[in-house]
């Protein structure tokens, strides 16, 4: 399994044709206490860059974009009862949704972990 | 979150020149820019050392949070939080006829305001719209060079307020903007014991009482009031001494520094309006449910700017009202969200978010009178979805002011 990162602070785990998407630990730290996550309906198809989810922190609502194109095959129902999972475990149990990848070539421009770390350090 | 517009400061400076009135502080207007750069408050470095995330607010760099809004909110409800509110405008008034002059500007009873007592009031425009809300108190004990009246106004509106007041005050009344004073708020159920451990005499203050105190030789003006619904104090301290005082307070086991984020969620739970959001020049005192700030004599006698609107709305009712809204589910409704009764647009959310102590989203909004009754079932549109909301009594979390000694 390989993990990719975007400059919108999302991570993408790719296993076969399925991509699991979440926001990075840096992103949750910036957002602060998360009180609600609005997830897409299963079966929804996204183009890369579409609004896919909304994260509500105590202070504000933030959009999460589809990092690649694909169809939503599963969402993380644990976030309904415990949105704070995104704060406590952003890069594992706090995942948002799984996509069936529409175009694997869209992964090519994304960062690996080392590149993302460097990107965050530059902010 | 924008800077103070230079236009305002030029306007103030011009008015000052015209009226020949003294205003302290640095009024350097040599740099002509669209927006003034954000300024630093006296505790700027102190906040940064304590790990604050700083944001632009009311023209200043201010701490939005330290460890996190939820934790800071809970700490303030359980212990005592220290807030830096030095961005707010601290003004004094003195001179012959100061009470009469202020009763022209404010709808509240100033003549009946006893020394060391404080009142909530507001500045109204000619149409009765709210220009700002504020605290006004009668000084005593020689505080602030023996001035008569002390006023605290919102940071984002202070230069406009000063301009408005200069325009409407007679020459005999001297207004002084004390921008060399910092302001701290210590709020929470343990605020009383915490402050008394530094200044024992503060234990005698009750809600909306104030007075001069001395701590390690530093003159302080302290009122028992705040913006969280909890017991607590607001402490005016010379800017040069504020770091020492903030350190002394945060060295106490009850006290932690708290940012603007928790200040907002605390005041929302307390049902207290935020100027520029819940209160604007477009809305009125009676609709805002702030009629308590206009005492009986003032309603009857009038003689203040905006009186006609107040009397009309007392007689006929306001067109819409500021109400509390309990929201079903966990999705917060934010400022700007439309409020519906069935298909009819009946209002707008003016403040909203997750309420940590309530454990659910709450909101404040303006709703047309026929739909503003307690228990009224409404809907709020959030990102194209309707969520159920009910008009609810405020405060959402009971006030715990110390009203008796």
UniProtKB/TrEMBL annotation, chain A:
The gene is gcvH. It comes from Sphingobium chlorophenolicum. Belongs to the GcvH family. Pfam families: GCV_H. Signal peptide: none annotated. One of its GO terms (biological process) is protein lipoylation. One of its GO terms (cellular component) is cytosol. This is Glycine cleavage system H protein. Residues 18-100 form the Lipoyl-binding domain. Keywords: Lipoyl. The keyword Transmembrane helix does not apply. Its cofactor is (R)-lipoate. InterPro entries: 2-oxoA_DH_lipoyl-BS, Biotin_lipoyl, GCV_H, GCV_H/Fam206, GCV_H_sub, Single_hybrid_motif. The modification N6-lipoyllysine is found at residue 59. HAMAP family: GcvH (MF_00272). SUPFAM superfamilies: Single hybrid motif. The keyword S-adenosyl-L-methionine does not apply. It comes from the Bacteria. The glycine cleavage system catalyzes the degradation of glycine. The H protein shuttles the methylamine group of glycine from the P protein to the T protein.
From TrEMBL, chain B:
GO terms for molecular function: aminomethyltransferase activity; methyltransferase activity; transaminase activity. Substrate binds at residue 234. Its EC number is 2.1.2.10. One of its GO terms (cellular component) is glycine cleavage complex. It catalyses: N(6)-[(R)-S(8)-aminomethyldihydrolipoyl]-L-lysyl-[protein] + (6S)-5,6,7,8-tetrahydrofolate = N(6)-[(R)-dihydrolipoyl]-L-lysyl-[protein] + (6R)-5,10-methylene-5,6,7,8-tetrahydrofolate + NH4(+). Gene3D superfamilies: Aminomethyltransferase beta-barrel domains, Aminomethyltransferase fragment, Probable tRNA modification gtpase trme, domain 1. It comes from the Bacteria. It is an enzyme of class 2 (transferase). Residues 44-297 form the GCVT N-terminal domain. One of its GO terms (biological process) is glycine catabolic process. Residues 321-397 form the Aminomethyltransferase C-terminal domain. Keywords: Aminotransferase, Methyltransferase, Transferase. Belongs to the GcvT family. This is aminomethyltransferase. It comes from Sphingobium chlorophenolicum.
